[in-house]
Amino acid sequence: MSDEPDHSGRRVTHDTRRFEAMFDRAGFGIAIIDLDGRFVDANPAYVGLTGYSLDELREMNYLALTHPDDRDLNRSGLAALLRGEIESFDLEKRYITSDGRTVWIRGKVTRIGGDDEPVHVVGTFEDNTAAKAAEREVVRLSNEVERTTDQLRLTFESMSDAVYVVDHAWRFTYLNSHAERLLRRGADDLRGKEIWSEFPDAIDTPLHATYHRAVEAGTSQELDEFHFAPLESWFRVAAFPSDQGLTVYFDDITDEREARLAISRQAALLDEATDAIIVRRRDHIITYWNRSAERLYGWPASEAVGCDIRTLLHDNVARFDEANAELLARGSWTGEFVLRSRTGDRIIVAARWTLIRDHDTDHDVVLAVNTDVTDQRRTELQLVRAQRLESIGTLAGGVAHDLNNTLAPILLASEMLHEEEDDADRGELISMILNSARRGADLVSQLLSFARGVDGDREPVDVAELLHAVYSIVRETFPKDIVVRTEVQAGLESVTGDRTQLQQVLLNLAVNARDAMPDGGTITLSASTVELDGQYLVAADGASPGRYVLIEVEDDGHGMAADVLDRVFEPFFTTKQPGSGTGLGLSMSAGIVQSHGGFLRAYSEIGSGSRFRVYLPSASHPAAPSDPSPSVAAPLRGTGETVLVVDDEDAIRSTTRRTLEHAGYLVVEAANGAAAVAAFARFQEQIDVVLIDMMMPVMDGPSAIHALRSLDPHARIVAASGLHGNGKTTRAANAGVRHFLPKPYTSAGLLQAIAEALAD
Predict the structure, then answer these.
(1) Is 461 helix (H, G, I), strand (E, B) or coil?
(2) pTM (2 decimals)?
(3) Cα 596 to Cα 615: distance, rounded to the nearest angstrom
(4) Tell me: the pLDDT tens digits for 726-752?
(5) Are both 8-157 and 162-252 of the same fold?
(6) CA-to-CA distance for 248 and 46, rounded, in angstroms?
């Protein structure tokens, strides 16, 4: 008889405790049911699965949990089990939880007990809702659960992790089938053998240190990644110390790690993408921010990740919320946002949002791909504005034609009346009419120059007189709290250009100066002659060294920031409120100055006012004093030559006839091109020159000129038009016409053109 104490009872108690611990800690549901279908016991996982407390379950029949459509599955399987026809059966059915939800569960039901023990049914269950939706295959549970040890083995075998247990001497005491597969050794082969002798390559590795640390500290230890070269695999390991030794849960993460590395490589590629790619949680917290997002918005990923995307980028939070609601409803959203960068700039992005759902964790995320379309939208806006401006130009052309036809007889008639009037008071009134008509003609010319880019007449311009004229306009029209000063260098040289266009440039600059001083201030208009060398002109496109007339418009307003100053000459760029400016003034002014061979520069600082400098090539001689009073040049006179006047406007034909007859010419009239051809064919021998309008009904000017040239290739022709540089004048020039008379014309201009044509 052995003196050794009998430990069998202690082992049973120990195994029971260990089973109870595993029963409670199992990650899947375990329930025990009696022959009447009532719950005897259930572990916490099963309680969490159903939503009912253990006490509530003990008062229920298992069929109460089962979906009505699935109850027959239970009855037939359970009956066969209790009759001994089967030892266990797998099931897949729906539960109705305590809160009314329907969940799919998968499990195994086994009969235990018999002989001298009560017969019960034990079932192991897991939530199969996500797996059911994805048609994933779950791990089947073991077929036999009869005794306590078998139940323990069932628990381990049903786990997704591989499990083995070693005692304090580091000998294997248990391995589940998953551990056998991963270690590529059978349980019978390893049981009772020391782990370090069977796997010596694990000595002095992080795994070895982790196991010893767990045993020595008496606390669980985890190893996120461990590479075991002999098995050519990566493992995730968790070690749990106990009185009996060490229980190890591990899993092969080789494929998972490779997938993670692939994702990291893909993330690196995402960093090279030109689009800003952002990932955020459903609560709008940013979790990923690629390098393009850093470049576009200005925040590094270290600062952006963890921030609420609404407060970081969005000024219009209400629009964000609307888009987000649509995203949650449909799973995707596309549209545009105006977002805020770190520097405060506004960025227009084309956004594409996708909701990525995680059914396992319910941690949904939103993938946002934002493309910067700021320049594209600005270009489109400029195109729309340019098209609108082109339409305005077309409209302006038609208006200019009608205005020129209206002004032409007024100019001619008032000049004739002014020349014949002896009464001083009446003469003053006629001069007023004449000057008003001339200003109207200048306005029409200016309108065409602005809307269609028509070049005006270039002639010597007295800059001092031009500056004085601008000063007079500004002083009379600007608020009284704005002081205007002029500083003009003595002996200032003249420039060659269009006076009306240059006056428009200076008025644009003066108006901008006024707008920069809402509370009043001082505007200084100055002009001087300067000599510029090549070094100064490096930044001035197309400018050559030499003498320039410098015109400066300076204010002491609020000034401009550097970023605004850099864009001040861009078309359509403006800092004014909508409706207060088009952003064309400075760009048009720069274009006019450049067309005169000069250039325009701007200087400004916040709080120090602004100064615009207009550089125009000098005409290299002092300007001749100008006579401020309008005068009518002495007209050239004819000697009985016959002029065929062709115009569809009766008033123009009448005043033109009177002017020509008064100057000694004979006149034949025609109201359109067809009538002109007929009159020319009839009086060809008498007609010395033809004055013909370009825009007429029945037969326009170019068509009539072609017909006249067919009758007489050497016919002298003067083409008149209120639209300079249009297609009709080009056609007339191609037909050999060398003399053009812009409308509205003065008597001097008319007579000069006729005289030049007759001189050919």
Answers:
(1) strand
(2) 0.39
(3) 10
(4) 555 667 777 678 888 888 888 888 899
(5) yes
(6) 24
